[in-house]
Amino acid sequence: MHPTDDAPDDLPRRSFLRIAGLTTAGWVVGTSALTLAESVAGKLFMPVNDRLDALLLNPQKPVPEFPVSAIEPKALIVNTFRFTPQIDPATFRLTVNGAVNHPLNLDLATIQKLPLTSMVIRHVCVEGWAAIVQWGGVRLRDVIQMAQPKVGVRYVYFQSADGYYESWDLASALHPQTILAYQKNGALLPVENGAPLRLASPIKLGYKLSKWVTGITLTSQLLPQMGYWEDQGYEWFAGI
Ligand SMILES: Nc1nc2c(c(=O)[nH]1)N[C@H]1C(S)=C(S)[C@@H](COP(=O)(O)O)O[C@H]1N2
Ligand SMILES: [Mo]
User: What's the whole-model pTM score?
Assistant: First the structure.
């Protein structure tokens, strides 16, 4: 059960700390913090599937999706920790840089000409709620492939217009159901849900799914800054 289904969008800022180990909603979410010593020593190692060529040639198996009739239009709770940036779609650009041979600077029209992927999946937040949502957008793997990643790429960083940041393992970023969404439940993506462009994926917890994505950087190493919540102790891989 999800007691927060009817919660208003303007809930006060909720603390992530209180939900460590939360099981009441049926979601068992582990958190494992890197010790300060580990970070300082620079021993940032996360096991990942990092074979770029294999991942590009052999897309991973898709997660089963839900029928459109299963969409829960009111269940997705707006979860914004800083502020809601207002982005002018006319001047918006998505940059893709880092360890790539062909850096990109894409406007929305160009992004929307790429093949549209639509999927009905479950969004799972560690705060103990979930929602079945339809997302429409472009596959992140298509965008990454356009940028021609270099061989040693292992991680993908996302910068957001509100200062939020996230890093992902390459395999999860290249998963066929990891998309940059510009539609929600068949309509244009609302600003509060991350317009003009946000991450959506059935394989990662909600906090990995950056809203208002403006920049993507490919790297061969995980930097000490791993993510907005990860740097406060939340699990980095955050798979579902
Ligand atoms: N840029 C940005 N992305 C973000 C967040 C945020 O505060 N800023 N919150 C995250 C969390 S914890 C969740 S559960 C989802 C919520 O998405 P929604 O607000 O569209 O429901 O966005 C994620 N992406
Ligand atoms: Mo979340």
Answer: 0.83
